């Protein structure tokens, strides 16, 4: 299916790899080709998107980049973005293919369903993982990273913030990869419930995200932030179970998680009916191919007088990728991180004609610009007063395992 969609300049594949987490969504959907689109950088992006959505009562697919924080909180970012996704892009697809465990649904403005089905059956299959000889460089040396974490802890001690999500970039210049093959390899190594292959002309996002940012179903809003990571033990089932318990009982990870839960509750309270925001699950432990994760679920009933774009603007960027208080930590992120995050820690997803939507958090992802041959991935973690800088560094490497195994 992806090979067929990848023939277009614009396509978006969203695949949950048969995970059945709470509040499941579309099993697998491909949007290919663009009938209409909107592309903007921070300024009046959200209001323009709202007008675009009202004018085009149709399926929309696209992304929000982290740079939209500059519009939400009147901030600025001067660091260079080498991958160069715009801050916002959405398109009305020419063709949509929906898959679940029992059926396939095809709708297209250009092709008949039978034509597409026949072409899908003849497209190439990928049986093995790609191995590309790529050597990544780090923006931070080990010592620089440790020093920076200590500086952030000093800000916490002074009361500037309570928690901050700090990220570092790994990159390679003058690199050519096959994005489609690399995505299939990433999916084989690290299948995750909010995976995405997203192509916007010469820019590619190859995403193996385990995290949902925000979902709207009727008037119900659901957010499932991840804070808390523990390694797997693939040698022993009992050992792996003990690691899950260690994560559940970790005071440091619980402190991170509950702070983000409070931040999400605060964000949702701006746009939800009074008294409806609640925590459905706190400190849930979920297992993925590379790691165990601590996930909490927060929900609320969105006010009927608001548009779906208002829900995004009120909650973006997501608390799990910023920290608390949100504006101050975003200022510190700009001060201490060396790279413009771009689409990383943004969101990719879809909006249905009725305004229901589902968006992931862009983490555990490769970003690639085919024209300037720049390949990048970023990893990070939540820093609190209790953070051990060495352990935070090791956690970054742990989260990157699925990507590192490709090269």
UniProtKB/TrEMBL annotation:
Which cellular component, as a GO term, is one annotated location? Answer: cytoplasm
Q: Which GO terms describe its molecular function?
A: 4-amino-4-deoxychorismate synthase activity
Q: Which InterPro entries match?
A: Anth_synth_I-like, Chorismate_C
Could you tell me the superkingdom of the organism this chain comes from?
Answer: Bacteria
Specify the Chorismate-utilising enzyme C-terminal domain's residue ranges: 142-399
A Pfam family matched by this chain, by name? Chorismate_bind
- Report any one BP term from Gene Ontology: L-tryptophan biosynthetic process
Under what name is this protein listed? Anthranilate synthase component I family protein
- Give the species: Pinibacter aurantiacus
């Amino acid at each position: 299916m992806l090979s067929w969609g990848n023939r277009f300049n614009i396509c978006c594949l969203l695949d949950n790899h048969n995970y059945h987490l709470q509040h499941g969504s579309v099993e697998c959907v491909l949007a290919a080709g663009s009938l209409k689109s909107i592309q903007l950088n921070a300024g009046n992006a959200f209001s323009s998107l709202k007008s675009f959505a009202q004018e085009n009562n149709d399926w929309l697919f696209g992304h929000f980049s982290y740079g939209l924080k500059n519009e939400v909180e009147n901030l600025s970012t001067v660091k260079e973005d080498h991958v160069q996704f715009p801050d916002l892009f959405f398109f009305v697809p020419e063709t949509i293919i929906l898959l679940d465990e029992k059926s396939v649904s095809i709708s297209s403005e250009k092709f008949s369903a039978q034509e597409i089905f026949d072409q899908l059956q003849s497209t190439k299959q990928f049986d093995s993982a790609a191995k590309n000889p790529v050597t990544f460089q780090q923006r931070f040396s080990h010592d620089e990273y440790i020093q920076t974490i200590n500086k952030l802890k000093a800000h916490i001690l002074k009361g500037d913030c309570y928690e901050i999500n700090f990220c570092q970039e790994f990159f390679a210049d003058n690199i050519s990869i096959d994005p489609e093959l690399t995505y299939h390899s990433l999916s084989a190594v690290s299948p995750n419930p909010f995976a995405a292959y997203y192509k916007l002309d010469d820019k590619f996002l190859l995403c193996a995200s385990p995290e949902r940012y925000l979902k709207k179903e009727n008037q119900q809003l659901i957010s499932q932030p991840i804070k808390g990571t523990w390694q797997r033990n693939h040698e022993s089932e009992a050992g792996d179970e003990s690691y899950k318990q260690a994560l559940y009982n970790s005071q440091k990870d619980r402190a991170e998680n509950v702070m983000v839960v409070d931040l999400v509750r605060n964000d949702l309270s701006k746009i939800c009916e009074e008294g409806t925001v609640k925590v459905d699950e706190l400190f849930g432990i979920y297992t993925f191919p590379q790691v165990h994760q601590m996930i909490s679920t927060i929900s609320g009933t969105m006010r009927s007088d608001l548009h779906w774009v208002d829900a995004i603007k009120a909650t973006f960027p997501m608390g799990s990728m910023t920290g608390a208080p949100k504006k101050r930590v975003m200022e510190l992120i700009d001060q201490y991180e060396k790279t413009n995050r771009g689409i990383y820690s943004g969101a990719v997803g879809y909006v249905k004609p009725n305004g229901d939507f589902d968006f992931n958090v862009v983490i555990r992802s490769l970003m690639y610009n085919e024209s300037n041959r720049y390949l990048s991935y970023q990893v990070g973690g939540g820093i609190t007063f209790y953070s051990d800088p060495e352990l935070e560094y090791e956690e970054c490497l742990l989260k990157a395992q699925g990507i590192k195994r490709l090269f």
